[in-house]
Automatic annotation (TrEMBL):
Signal peptide: none
PROSITE patterns tied to this protein: RHODANESE_3 (PS50206)
Short name of any one Pfam family annotated for the protein: Lactamase_B
Coiled coil (UniProt feature): none
Protein name (record): Glyoxylase-like metal-dependent hydrolase (Beta-lactamase superfamily II)
SMART domains, sorted: Lactamase_B, RHOD
Highest taxon of the lineage: Bacteria
Single GO biological process annotation from the record: hydrogen sulfide metabolic process
Alphabetic keyword roster: Hydrolase, Metal-binding
InterPro entries in the record: Metallo-B-lactamas (IPR001279), Mito_Persulfide_Diox (IPR051682), POD-like_MBL-fold (IPR044528), Rhodanese-like_dom (IPR001763), Rhodanese-like_dom_sf (IPR036873), RibonucZ/Hydroxyglut_hydro (IPR036866)
GO molecular function, one term: hydrolase activity
Domain Rhodanese: 268-317, 372-453
Length: 456
């Protein structure tokens, strides 16, 4: 058997290629939208991708099922509770997909979403213990999928949490302890609240170590899994919707053109936002007025998706060589309106100094000095669960994912200082506030980690 896990650190997203070496038949589970790597690996290993399985309608990225189907002619399969606009095979609980010696077995595991399934992988048809189970967003390492993302479309989080209880405790935990667990996400994903940095585990390990896999009454389970979930980025509803649609297929040959002065000014006049993916320190030293900074080295797409709208055209400013990769990361979450990139921002700012702006970044000590002025508004942009690590007295808590909707709670005429856990999200939030007309904005270097050291 050929079994390959593909993991995107920037989205904490995992997909899988499973192939039978005797027949050359293969299936890809939960592919991302840039599918070239699956195609190259399948060709290199003599595999034919015959099917694409989606464990559910993903909300945090745009799935690559349509791209793979176009490239290979593969069928698309989803749980039989799904109702997509594209052609898909309904996969029923207990259904087996024969690739040769390798057999895939479908297990209906609703809870994160109503149509969620898991895929049990049997290396040989008569093996007493399955090789593994691909659990999608039902069971993570150390956590389970959040049940609240569909509350806005008429399915309550309590109803889904009850389904999740049965899926995790009665179905997945019925598998042998030796069965390996491969989820669709890892640490950092907003699809759960306590995901491990480990990318795989076993049913036995999760039975002992995962708080949600410990036997408990349904009522207690519902209370545990619905409490303390991070604010979902605004783009999640967009991605969940377009993953159901028969949307346009991505062009693998698409490029990110360099913009000259005329094209730049025209794009800005037409409403394009400048997304600067350089390091926050470089951005702070000098950037184009109105730019939003989300550094390439962090969770670029997810963070930008909290601050930008999917239908908004944008211009990339990036370090040399990262322009295309920045646009690709945005494309993975369905932000397809990249107009182009500005090839030499330093030269541009030298030539047009009136367009240059700086962002104030304070040390933790400087932050405490600034707070001696009672006009300063301190904003904590961490998620609710992070507040358990401590907080600054008097800080106004607005998670970054809520900043665009709650910025009216802040007075633009007064100084604003933002902090997060380490400085990445606060830099993004500060740049967004500046782009909205706030004139005295700073963020804290090192975030709460640095603040806590000073406070102690």
């Amino acid at each position: 058997m050929i079994f390959t896990q593909y993991y995107l650190d920037c989205l904490s997203q995992a997909s899988y290629l499973i192939g039978d070496e005797t027949t050359g038949r293969a299936v890809v589970v939960d592919p991302r939208r840039d599918v070239e790597e699956y195609l190259a690996d399948a060709q290199e290993q003599g595999l034919t991708i015959e099917g694409v399985i989606l464990t559910h309608f993903h909300a945090d990225f745009v799935s690559g099922h349509l791209e793979l189907a176009r490239a290979t002619g593969a069928w698309i399969g989803m749980g039989d509770a799904a109702d997509p606009e594209f052609t898909a095979q309904p996969l029923q609980d207990g259904e087996r997909i024969d690739l040769g010696e390798v057999v895939l077995e479908i297990m209906s595991t609703p809870g994160h979403t109503p149509e969620s399934i898991s895929v049990i992988v049997h290396e040989h048809p008569d093996d007493a213990v399955p090789h593994s189970v691909l659990t999608g967003d039902c069971l993570f390492i150390g956590d389970v999928g959040r049940p609240d993302l569909l509350a806005s479309v008429g399915v309550s989080q309590e109803e889904l949490a009850a389904m999740l209880h049965d899926s995790v405790q009665n179905k997945l935990m019925s598998l042998p302890d030796e069965t390996k667990v491969f989820p669709a996400h890892g640490a950092g994903s907003a699809c759960g609240k306590n995901l491990s940095t480990e990318k795989s585990s076993t049913i036995g390990n999760q039975r002992m170590m995962n708080y949600a896999a410990v036997p408990m009454p349904q009522e207690k389970f519902i209370a545990l899994v619905t409490e303390g979930q991070p604010t979902a980025p605004a783009y999640f509803s967009h991605d969940a919707r377009i993953n159901k649609e028969n949307r346009p297929v991505r062009d693998p040959g698409a490029t990110v053109p360099a913009l000259d002065e005329e094209a730049l000014q025209q794009a800005v006049a037409d409403g394009a936002i400048i997304l600067d993916t350089r390091d926050p320190m470089d951005f702070a030293a000098g950037h184009l007025a109105g730019s939003i900074n989300v550094g390439f080295s962090g969770r670029l797409a997810e963070t930008a998706g909290m601050l930008l709208s999917p239908d908004q055209p944008f211009i990339i400013v990036a370090d040399p060589g990262e322009e295309h990769a920045s646009a690709t990361r945005m494309m993975r979450i369905g932000f397809d309106n990249c107009v182009g990139h500005l090839p030499d921002v330093a030269g541009h700012l030298t030539e047009h100094p009136h367009r240059a702006r700086r962002l104030s970044r304070l040390t933790a000590s400087e932050m405490f000095t600034a707070l001696e002025n009672d006009q300063v508004q301190l904003v904590d942009v961490r998620n609710a669960g992070e507040l358990d690590n401590g907080r600054v007295e008097g800080a106004h808590h607005i998670p970054l994912a809520q900043l665009t909707k709650r910025c009216a709670e802040l007075d633009p005429a007064r100084p604003v200082v933002l902090h997060c856990a380490g400085g990445y999200r606060s830099a993004a939030g500060a740049s967004w506030l500046m782009s909205r007309g706030f004139t005295d904005v700073s963020d804290v270097l090192g975030g709460y980690g640095a603040i806590d050291l000073i406070a102690v």
